UniProtKB/TrEMBL annotation:
Pfam families: LysM (PF01476), Peptidase_M23 (PF01551). GO terms for molecular function: metalloendopeptidase activity. This is LysM domain-containing protein. Residues 96-131 are annotated as: Disordered. Belongs to the E.coli NlpD/Haemophilus LppB family. CDD domains: LysM, M23_peptidase.
Length: 254
């Protein structure tokens, strides 16, 4: 993993309660390690010419189109093993290193119409859903869904509204995590619903629950904000057996 630079802010990962299930502990460990590895990229250093800092909601295909290059080039220049495995704050090389050239499949910015992404087994992520009827959720906040789940760059949804909008538990459960020690998620709450399901509520302005606390469905657990985010909104994610799934399949229609 990357070592912390002198300019990076120290981040401590809070302990998780002992009652937390192996699924929760495993997810928190993976999340913490991946986010700590990005500290130098997410710090105060400026983006150097020829590089791009991954933003919330970005996918490699979108970045390639914006930068006038191809997904294959980005994968090659950044030694990526999976074109779907990019993280918020990650620095990507978007210009060829010395001695290398762009591939002929790179789209042209001047044409205004991006070329389609190259076909590969990883170019399109499979949409995952929870088993029908496995869990029944309520909407965690009022507002407009401004970003949806796509299973690759976006493993959850973003609900936008004004700062202070109530954030509620989508289903009953136990608070497995409440804090701000995970870089990129701001003030974060994770609720464990049962042995299989977790829900994640990020970028809040205020947290109203503590680890180990039981919460009921619809109970206010936080207030919407923009901690570690450029815009006010709730990032909501649902996980089934450790995998992010599309919450739309378990949320009621609006």
């Amino acid at each position: 993993m990357l070592s912390l630079s002198a300019t990076a802010s120290p981040v401590s990962v809070p302990p998780v309660i002992s009652q937390t299930s192996p699924i929760v502990r495993r997810w928190l460990c993976v999340l913490a390690v991946s986010l700590l590895a990005l500290l130098t990229a997410c710090g105060t250093t400026k983006v150097q010419p020829g590089y791009y800092r991954v933003q919330s909601g970005d996918t490699l295909t979108q970045i390639a189109r914006k930068q006038g290059t191809s997904v294959n080039d980005l994968v090659r220049w950044n030694n990526l093993s999976n074109s779907n495995s990019i993280e918020v704050g990650q620095m990507l090389r978007v210009e060829p290193p010395a001695g290398q050239a762009r591939t002929s499949s790179a789209p042209s910015k001047a044409r205004g119409k991006p070329a389609p992404a190259p076909k590969s087994s990883t170019s399109t992520a499979k949409r995952r859903t929870a088993p029908p009827g496995a869990i029944s959720l309520v909407w965690p906040a009022q507002g407009k869904v401004t970003r949806g789940y796509d299973g690759s760059g976006s493993n959850g949804i973003v609900i936008s509204n004004s700062s202070g909008t109530p954030v509620v538990a989508a289903a009953q459960g136990t608070v497995a995590y409440s804090g701000s020690g995970l870089r990129g998620y701001g003030h974060l709450v994770i609720v464990k619903h049962n042995a299989s399901f977790l829900s994640i509520y990020a970028h809040n302005s205020k947290l109203l629950v503590k680890e180990g606390q039981r919460v009921s469905q619809g109970q206010k657990i936080a207030e919407m904000g923009n901690s570690d985010s450029k815009q006010v909104g709730l990032y909501f994610e649902l996980r089934y057996d450790g995998q992010a799934v599309d919450p739309a399949g378990s949320l009621p229609p609006r």
